Amino acid sequence: EVVMTQSPATLSVSPGERATLSCRASQSVTSKLAWYQQKPGQAPRLLIYGASTRATGIAARFSGSGSGTEFTLTISSLQSEDFAVYHCQQYNNWPLTFGGGTKVEIK
Amino acid sequence: QVQLMDSGGDVVQPGGSLRLSCAASGFSFKIFGMHWVRQAPGKGLEWVAFIRYDGVNQYYADSVKGRFTISRDNSENMVYLQMDSLRPEDTAMYFCAKSECTRTSCLLWADYWGQGTRVTVSS
Question: How far B76 CA sits from the closest chain A CA (Å)?
Fold first, then answer.
């Protein structure tokens, strides 16, 4: 199976600063990579699919990039509501797999 | 709007069985594939199973293959997860989620999620 590795596990950022989250695949997943945001006690919410396409209603401060094995989620200027856990998922190969998540916390 | 209502979670003994349900509304259920995804306490997300729009094909994580069965009833807009031979490591919140996988274009990200239903496997 494709192993997805996210780094860092925790990212401490001040409001208004930029956050850069990484996701690496153990083999190429082309551009079939999604990012989700999850807040405590809530279901995940789709942010990005196709590695770089924002889902409906997602703010422009969220952007995704990468292809193959290396992917990045960037939040250009962190707002209070952005402090959450972010998960990447590959959907190129069965079984579908998620990374372990990156927690973005207030510095 | 799209709504997914998960239910059926409970406390069950190891070796027991449970059936989870997910009631869908607000979209043309019969043309979209559906996922089950779980999250153990304090852990990340784990994809569990997927069923195509017509129910003909199902896919499973290795950790549940042979024990769990995903099914759907397009006349009732329902998707199910039958869980047999449950183990303590199956303890998790289980979410159903809609995909963008149809007959003509199969895109497997999960664009809408239920609120989750909790399964605890313990003696």
Answer: 24
